[in-house]
Specification:
Layout: E1 2-11, E2 14-24, E3 29-33, H1 40-47, E4 55-60, E5 63-64, H2 70-75, E6 78-80, H3 93-100, H4 106-109, H5 116-128, H6 144-156, E7 162-166, H7 174-189, E8 193-197, H8 201-207, E9 210-215, E10 218-223, H9 225-230, H10 232-237, H11 241-246
Parallel strand pairs: 3-8, 3-9, 6-7, 7-8
Antiparallel strand pairs: 1-2, 1-4, 4-5, 9-10
Helix pairs in contact: 3-6
This protein binds adenosine-5'-triphosphate (ATP).
Residues 11, 14, 16, 34, 36-42 line the site of adenosine-5'-triphosphate.
Length: 247
C-alpha cells in the first residue's frame, strides 16, 4: 500500500535518512523502530511531506506522493500524528479536533465557525475513543495520554486509510496506554493500516505484524517480530538493551 524507495534526507553533512527502502502492507500494523537518531521521525516527515526528501520517492496505492503538499497527501488518505501534541492554545478538545483536521490548506483554517456536520463527526469520533467527557475541556489541560487520544481523534476526521503514529506511548501512563493500544487494534480490525514509530519495545512486539528497523538512516532489518528479536544486526544496533528486555 505504501512504498518507500531510495528515500534520502540530508541536513548538510548529516545523512538522517540514507537510501531507505521499505513497504507497508495494506491492513497491517507495521512498526518503524531503531535507536535514537536512527532517522525514524525524519522518514515520517518525508513520507507525510512535513519535510522535503533530498532524494527518493514515496508511493501510496501506486501513486507517487512525495511531490504533493501535506494536505493533498491527507486527501489521498494518509494522516499522521506528531511526537509532541499539536494542541492549539485556548481551544477545547472539540475545537482542536476540528481545527487540526481542516486539511484543505490555509483557506480551510480561515473558516469562521465549526459546522454542525463537523461537530457531529468529531463527537462521533470522541465517542468511539471514549473521550466525549473531555470534549469541552481546554486542550492544554489534558494529560499526555489524553492529548494523544485528542491527536488520534483529529487524525480520524479525515477518514484516512493509513495512519502514521509518532510515539503514541510517549509519556503516557500504563492504564491509558492500554486504552490507546486497544483503539489502535480496533481501528486496524476495521481495516485501517497503521505505521507506528515507538520506543516501547514490549508494546511494539505485541502490537505489530511487521517491524522495520532503522539505524544510522538505513533499514537494517525488516520482518515479523519473532525474526527481529533474533536478528544479530538489530541486537547489535541496540547493543542488546531494550530489545532483550522486551522479549
Ligand atoms: N532539522 C534537522 N537539522 C539537522 N539535523 C537533524 C534535523 N532533524 C534531524 N536531524 C538529525 O538527523 C538524525 C536522525 O534524527 P531523527 O529525529 O529522524 O531520528 P529518530 O530515529 O526519530 O530519533 P529519536 O528516536 O531520538 O526520535 C539525527 O542525527 C538528528 O540529529
Amino acid at each position: 500500500m505504501l512504498e518507500i524507495k531510495g528515500l534520502c534526507k540530508y541536513f548538510g553533512g548529516i545523512k538522517a535518512v540514507d537510501d531507505c527502502n521499505f513497504g507497508v502492507e495494506r491492513g497491517s500494523i507495521t512498526a518503524l523502530i531503531g535507536p535514537n537518531g536512527a532517522g525514524k521521525t525524519t522518514a515520517f516527515n518525508c513520507i507525510s511531506r512535513t519535510a522535503m526528501p533530498t532524494k527518493g520517492s514515496v508511493w501510496l496505492d501506486g501513486e507517487r506522493i512525495d511531490k504533493l503538499r501535506p494536505h493533498q497527501i491527507t486527501q489521498r488518505g494518509l494522516s499522521r500524528t506528531f511526537q509532541i501534541s499539536r494542541n492549539l492554545a485556548d481551544m477545547t478538545v472539540l475545537e482542536n479536533v476540528i481545527c487540526q483536521s481542516r486539511i484543505g490548506g490555509w483557506r480551510d483554517l480561515m473558516k469562521p465557525a465549526m459546522s454542525s456536520d463537523e461537530i457531529d463527526k468529531a463527537m462521533g469520533i470522541l465517542d468511539f475513543l471514549g473521550i466525549t467527557r473531555i470534549a469541552y475541556e481546554d486542550g492544554s489541560n489534558l494529560s499526555y495520554g489524553q492529548k494523544k487520544l485528542m491527536d488520534l481523534a483529529a487524525l480520524l476526521m479525515s477518514d484516512p486509510k493509513i495512519i502514521l503514529l509518532d510515539e503514541p506511548a510517549g509519556g503516557v501512563n500504563p492504564t491509558l496506554l492500554e486504552e490507546i493500544v486497544g483503539h489502535i487494534r480496533k481501528l486496524n480490525d476495521q481495516g485501517l493500516t497503521v505505521l507506528i514509530v515507538e520506543h516501547n519495545m514490549e508494546l511494539i512486539m505485541r502490537l505489530s505484524h511487521r517491524i522495520v528497523v532503522m539505524a544510522q538512516g538505513r533499514v537494517i532489518a525488516n520482518g515479523a517480530p519473532a525474526e527481529i528479536r533474533e536478528n544479530p544486526a538489530v541486537l547489535d544496533a541496540y547493543l542488546g538493551g531494550v530489545l532483550e528486555e522486551a522479549v
